[in-house]
Amino acid sequence: MRVLIAESDLFISSPLIRMLRNASYTVDHATSGSDTINMLKYYDYDLLITEMSLEDMEGHDIIRQIRRAQITTPIMVISTLMQPQAKVMAFAAGADDYVIKPYDNDELLARVQALMRRAHGFAEPRIKVGPLELDLSSRMISIDGQFLHLTSKEYAIMELLIVRRGAILTKDTFLNHLYGGIDEPEMKIIDVFICKLRRKLQRFGAGHMITTVWGRGYILAEEPEQPASPALSSSTHAAPNLREAI
Q1: Mean pLDDT of the chain
Q2: If you ran DSSP here, which 8-state letter would residue 227 be given?
Q3: Which of 38, 61, 153, 174 is deepest in the core (most CB within 10 A)?
Q4: Residue 1: Cβ within 10 Å count
Q5: In-domain check, residue 22
Q6: Which residues contact 61 (CB under 8 A, 6 or more apart)?
């Protein structure tokens, strides 16, 4: 999952960025309201976390402009302002959550996960696709109850495939999700990641779940096409011999 943090002072936002990255989130940083709005327009984010005041505009003005641009990314406001009126203004502008500093890290992560679940239409933290199960709270993936050992990049790809199951995802989408336009490697790296993931899934008999859509990208099908059974295959090949014998 990918998060954008809007904060004028990088020193202040560094602990939050570090915490989210340690929790395996891809995190980008914007220092101004205009940069925040432009990044949300051109990149696909799962959450915006913003201060109530940036260097060029107030937080509620940023939120209002984001919503006017028909950007539906969930927005969490983090602020030292405790007055009810500050919260009312943020929610009225289009914010989805309001967290007061100082905050508890575990509570903040729980709120982040809850916002992302609701944004993707999931009431529960666990998402099942066939034998695969994604736990958004623990950020773990299992197959028929067996934990799947993945690198951070492999997890990010599988998470995206599961959350958007049934949708064709382009290589550009994966690159954007993994690297956010910063120091992106060549596009063929996605093929390498997918190949490694298929090998790991195949150990559990699920290597066929990630399907290539030639010229477009990859898809995780909810009901992947199963290979023909050996019995059916052998009976099909036996038919010509039977006709020849007759």
Answers
A1: 83
A2: P
A3: 174
A4: 23
A5: yes
A6: 33, 93
CA dist., res. 207 & res. 192, Å (int): 14
53-92: b or e for each residue (b if 16 or more CB lie within 10 Å)?
bbeebebbebbbbbeeeebebbbbbbbebeeeebbebbbe
With the C-alpha atoms ordered 134, 138, 144, 150, is the resulting torsion angle positive or negative?
positive
Same domain, 29 and 131: no
Please name which of 50, 58, 57 lies closest in space to residue 30, comparing C-alpha atoms: 50
Cα–Cα dist 11/20, whole Å: 15
CATH number, domain of 160, equals: 1.10.10.10
Question: Residue 179: which domain range?
Answer: 126-220
The domain boundary, picked from 119, 141, 172, lies at 119
> Among 98, 119, 140, which residue terminates a domain?
119
pLDDT of residue 98: 94
